[in-house]
Amino acid sequence: MNFTFNTPPEIVFKSGATRALGEVVKRRFQRPILLTDKGLVDAGLVAPALTSLKSAGHDVLLFDDVAADPPAAKVKQAVAAAREHNADGVIGLGGGSSMDTAKVVAVLLNSNQTLEEIYGVDQVKAARLPLVLCPSTSGTGSEVTSISVITTEEDTKVAVVDNALYPDLAVLDPELTFGLPRHVTAATGIDAMVHAIEAYTNIHRKNPVSDALAREALRLLSANIVTACEHPGDRPAREAMLLGAMLAGQAFANSPVGAVHGMAYPLGGIFHVPHGLSNSLMLEPVLKFNAPNADHQYAELCDCIGAAAVGSNAEKCDAFIKRIVDIVEATGVERRLAQLGISHNDLPRMAEDAMKGQRVLQNNPRTVTYEDALQMYTDVL
Ligand SMILES: NC(=O)c1ccc[n+]([C@@H]2O[C@H](COP(=O)([O-])OP(=O)(O)OC[C@H]3O[C@@H](n4cnc5c(N)ncnc54)[C@H](O)[C@@H]3O)[C@@H](O)[C@H]2O)c1
Ligand SMILES: [Fe+2]
Fold first, then answer.
1. Pocket test for ligand 1, best of 142, 146, 257 (most atoms within 8 A of CB)
2. DSSP designation for 274
3. Given ligand 1 and candidates 137, 151, 163, 194, which is best to mutate, with the most ligand atoms within 8 Å of its CB?
4. Is the CB of 188 inside a 6 Å radius of any atom of ligand 1?
5. Whose CA is nearest to atom 5 of ligand 1?
6. What predicted TM-score, i.e. pTM, was given to this entire model?
7. How far is the CA of 119 from the centre of ligand 1 (A)?
8. What is the DSSP-derived secondary structure letter of residue 381?
9. Any idea what the Cα angle at residue 215 is, between residues 209 and 221, rounded to 5°?
10. How open is the CA angle 152-155-161, to the nearest 5 degrees?
11. 22 vs 42, 134, 308, 342, CA distance in Å?
12. Which atom of ligand 1 approaches the CA of 100 most closely?
């Protein structure tokens, strides 16, 4: 056995933690920039955190212009705003888009490197500024990963992957998620389930710590996602979802995702389909495609998701896929590409773009060719 496991040094999980953010972050910085988006501000989730930071003596700059699937240009604007403020620390409060922007801003502020120079794996040269991340969706797990996903000027999704992107502190406040709209709860929750499944089937970096985290994440997420959709104020369900998404994040940060994400990236890059939704659309076809090579692993995961399964690996694998599909359907998310305005003519370009995602495709239990990708897109059109 041979593996390395990394995670942030400190995690605070506490209801109301962001309302007391000034105390929770302690004296990590004096002039932080807080990065978020307008949706979070409108939902009233940012003001209490700002008030708390100011009461604790921080001269905090609010940047509430983060865009979904953060475009490179927007990230550069945030860096410029932070420089102007002479920021000495970075807080990301929001979904994956806000946290991913915060990670890269914390790196670039202290560095002579450009954004383009840090694309890829282990390209960060200088130490970053202090970084605190507070998730408001139960999805990406970005608060505990070393990854930031950026959309380039060419509409391609690229990743910055470097241990410098683990924050100093992750603050998980389940109360932030009570007001998450149903479709966001559903899509981001399915994204988290995909993180757990794909961490478990990674062919290069699967490891026992990620496996244990992935199993517990799947147990929590599968048992609570429909309740969280139907009863948004259900505290135990919201807590379980936030915890499950974080555990899945820790799992895949150390055993990265595969073809569901690889096939989903073109939907986000070209058509701006939200990340969670694009993953949920590609989940069923990729599970079926992977089944010949991953049936024993899917069979092992049956008990985590409450799939009644007996018999051979193939039978348990079928039960696993059926139960996952039932959960996805119960959340009410879109199930067809055509529902998002994608047509038959778009599929070849999508399959070409998917092939550029070898960073994740190489982790998948079955090799995906251009023809395979085209077939899977056709299956869910
Ligand atoms: N870094 C990683 O490890 C990692 C992993 C997976 C995905 N990602 C990236 O994360 C991004 C997606 O993040 P996401 O799915 O969390 O969505 P998001 O950050 O794009 O937010 C989606 C929407 O939900 C709203 N929202 C968020 N929290 C809310 C709340 N509590 N109440 C009301 N509205 C709220 C936002 O305003 C926004 O409109 C993509 O760019 C994806 O590529 C990163
Ligand atoms: Fe994801």
1. 142
2. -
3. 137
4. yes
5. 140
6. 0.97
7. 20
8. -
9. 130
10. 45
11. 21, 13, 47, 45
12. 1
Query: What is the per-residue pLDDT for 157?
Result: 81
Structure tokens at 221: 């997420």
Is the CB of 174 inside a 6 Å radius of any atom of ligand 1?
no
Q: How high is the pLDDT of residue 156?
A: 81
Residue 240 and residue 321: Cα distance in Å, rounded? 22
User: What CATH number was assigned to the domain covering residues 11-177?
Assistant: 3.40.50.1970
Q: Is the CB of 331 under 6 A from ligand 1?
A: no
Grouped pLDDT means (10 residues each) for the chain, 381 residues? 95 98 95 98 98 97 95 96 98 97 97 96 96 97 97 86 98 97 97 98 97 98 98 97 98 97 93 94 98 97 89 94 97 96 96 94 98 98 97
List, for residues 19-75, the tens digit of each pLDDT value: 999 999 998 999 999 999 999 999 999 999 999 999 999 999 999 999 998 999 999
Expressed in angstroms and rounded, the spacing between residue 377 Cα and the centre of ligand 2 is 18
Q: Is 145 in the pocket of ligand 1 (CB under 6 A)?
A: yes
- Mean pLDDT over the full length of the chain: 96
> What CATH superfamily is the domain 182-379?
Dehydroquinate synthase-like - alpha domain (1.20.1090.10)
Centre of ligand 1 to C-alpha 36, Å, is 10
Residues of the chain with CATH 1.20.1090.10: 182-379
Beta bridge partners of 176: none
Phi, psi of 160 (to 5 degrees): -105, 120
Per-residue burial over 333-354, b if 16 or more Cβ lie within 10 Å, else e, is beeebeeeebeeebbeebbebb
pLDDT tens digits for 206-239? 999 999 999 999 999 999 999 999 999 999 999 9
With a 6 Å cutoff on the Cβ, whether 148 touches ligand 1 is yes
* Substitution site in 162, 184, 283 for ligand 1 pocket (most atoms within 8 Å of beta carbon): 184
* CATH 3.40.50.1970 domain position(s) in the chain: 11-177
